[in-house]
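A quick aside before the break. I want you to see a complete sequence-to-structure record at least once, exactly as it would be stored in a machine-readable document. Don't worry about memorizing anything.
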Amino acid sequence: MSQLNRTPLHDLHVELGARMVPFAGYEMPVQYPLGVKKEHEHTRAACGLFDVSHMGQLLLRGPAPAEALETLVPADLLGLPEGMQRYALFTNEAGGILDDLMVVNAGDHLYLVVNAACKAQDIAHLRAHLPEGHEIEVLDRGLIALQGPQAATVMQRLCPAACEMIFMQHGRFEIAGIPVWVSRSGYTGEDGFEISVAAEQSEALARRLLAEPEVEAIGLGARDSLRLEAGLCLYGHDIDTTTTPVEAGLIWAIGKPRRHGGERPGGFPGAETILHQVEAKDHSRKRVGLLGEGRAPVREGTELYDAEGNLIGIVTSGGFGPSVGKPVALGYVPVALAEVGTTVFAEVRGKRLPMVVSKTPFVAPGYYRG
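That is the input. The structure line, written in tokens, reads:
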């Protein structure tokens, strides 16, 4: 077995009693002594600190970085104001999703955050396909997410200027004398901040944040249940090369200028397929939220059936939602069965359990929009 990578916070996780597991080529904390359920509930009620340093952080430089990246993603990046961040998708020629990422307009360059498991392929993809004169710099930095309704209370003490930002805004600040790049965003459905910091200063910053009374260290287990309740896709599970942005319910990630009738229609891999699906609405399946009854969680890979017993789809993410108090899941069903309120059946240990197609997110988002 190949050696697992470690983040700059590895020793701190061990010191805090984390249970470490392999994840996307890294040794990562899945939970701390508090336990997954309490970590989840603490983040929803107060503030959690997550190590997301396994993610890839990149800089894209060149004569026209936004224009260059638009050749690979359907997002409107030329219209992204300086100091703002936008969600984007790398697509392939068939219209499938290679990865999802965040893009920040940092003035004369773009700052990208890509998924850990796709990091190497994304870097290779960018280097192979970006127009000449553009280059990718791979950063060695820590990435810490501070998430929850009291995240702003904590930041108000340590970095009040960051609290003036709204959701998806990005800026450069100092926390306890440590230079940081901060975006007001996250993966939990709560208000919060993602903080990029030099690798060698990551532990000092994490300790400073954990010293605040509202903050607890939170592992991958609760990160997953939080993002699932927030209805957020996980790459390699809810979206992959077999799913198009339209099937995945991510039409909003296709910028209006990039659609037919827009200023810069198409021009990204798979545009013909994707834009046809946007307009003709003739895709056969759709990602939906599913809400169960009782306590039995419905896990990824569970088969879904209609009332007549026909196999109709599959669960791509699922578990028990501690804040919802019910089993929650994401999955794909035929468009005809994707209407909110439709009942489908999940096969769990030989039993067909009813699940209702529901709006996502399953919990009301707490994003700060000013």
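Two observations worth writing down. The longest strand covers residues 311-321. The two ends are 48 Å apart (CA to CA). We'll return to this after the break.
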